Amino acid sequence: MSAKILTVDDALYMRKMLCSILDGVGYQTCEAPDGEAGVAAYEAEKPDLVLMDITMPGLDGIGAPKAIIEKDPSAKVVICSALGQQQMVLEAVKAGACEYVVKPFEPEKVLEIVQRLLSAAA
Amino acid sequence: MQVEFIEPFVRATFTVLSQVVSASPERGQLTLRDGNTFTTQELSTLLGVSGDIEGVALYGMSQVTALKIASQMLDQDVKEIDELASSALSELANIITGNATTHLETAGFQCDITPPSLINGSGIQVTTLCPALLVPVSSQFGKIDINVALRKTRKAA
Predict the structure, then answer these.
(1) Closest residue on chain A to B15 (Cα)
(2) What is the average pLDDT across B123-132?
């Protein structure tokens, strides 16, 4: 069975775009529009990897990975954010993110990271 | 309001428009808006900035330009600003502003941004913390006005 990837982003456009990139190469996808819904979707869907935005209403992409990793220390969270400040990258890494992609990104870049992290776990 | 605050937004707009919608942008004349209020164009996306500097960045455009940009982003002929088109335009503003804050960090200012809001409708008066600086950026999709009204906070002073 193909791996399942959860996309957490408040922008419908970005969720559709990421899911379409992932669908295109055969991954299963699911999505959530904010941090709280992302944590709930993680528990319900048990995805193999999470793509997470930072700037979101409510629980953001720093708080949500913390909540996910607290429940599942082996969770893999990749941040996809428009924010590229060093301080933000450091905060994300402290929150447990294993990779950080700055928007705008090339689809190939995201796929390369997803494939690498999933094959390392296999 | 310092001119150095708008330059990161103009640079980010050029980079993001080129990468996301393959635009060839051209920069217009920098102007300072008169007073702390200005009136919106047909469609605007607005983001708040907080941290070492605070205020708003607002990207204004005509409906025609908005439809052309959304069509390019969604790879389909967009005829109205529906939920998906609104989301695409908001995300474009989010990416531009996010990239601008990365440039601002290099200039010594740490700041964060809010999720974007989209204002669909012209003639709305926006009051800002300080007079906004405006740089129009033109491309094959039409003109986007970059309005930036930012001031240093006490933290940065």
Answers:
(1) A104
(2) 93
The CATH fold of domain A4-121: Rossmann fold (3.40.50)
Which fold, B3-152? Chemotaxis protein chec (3.40.1550)
At residue B3 the predicted structure's pLDDT band, cuts being 50, 70 and 90, is confident
Q: Is A121 left (phi over 0), alpha (psi -120 to 50) or beta?
A: alpha
Whole-complex ipTM: 0.91
**Which chain A residue has the Cα nearest residue B92?**
A104
What does the DSSP 8-state code read for residue B156?
Answer: T
Whether B94 and A11 lie within 8 Å, measured CB to CB: yes
- Distance of residue B92 Cα from the nearest chain A Cα, in angstroms: 9
Q: Read off the tokens for A49.
A: 């990897």
Give the list of residues 6+ apart from residue A110 with CB closer than 8 angstroms, or none.
Answer: A18, A21, A51, A78, A80, A101
Q: Residue B83: which of A12, A57, A102 has the nearest Cβ?
A: A12
